[in-house]
Design brief:
Layout lengths: L2 H11 L8 H11 L4 E4 L5 E5 L6 E5 L4
Antiparallel strand pairs: 1-2, 2-3
C-alpha cells in the first residue's frame, strides 16, 4: 500500500473522540518527531510548528484524556 494511504488509514482508524484525544496526540508526536517543533499550552494542547521557507505553520492537538 502507498505510504500516504497507509498513514491516512492509521490516522483515521486511531480513536480520538472528544475528550479522549491522547491516542491521536501520541500518533502525531511519533510521526512528526524530528520534523516539527512540539510545544504545549496550559490546557495540555500539543502545538506542532513546522518552520521552513515562508511562514511557520502551526498544528494543534488538544488532549483531555
Amino acid at each position: 500500500m502507498d505510504k500516504k494511504l497507509t498513514w491516512l488509514k492509521q490516522l483515521s482508524e486511531t480513536c480520538g473522540v472528544s475528550g479522549f484525544e491522547t491516542p491521536i496526540k501520541n500518533l502525531l508526536q511519533k510521526r512528526l518527531q524530528g520534523k516539527a517543533k512540539v510545544s504545549y499550552d496550559k490546557l495540555g494542547s500539543a502545538v506542532f510548528t513546522n518552520e521552513g521557507q515562508g511562514l511557520a505553520k502551526n498544528y494543534a492537538c488538544q488532549p483531555y484524556g
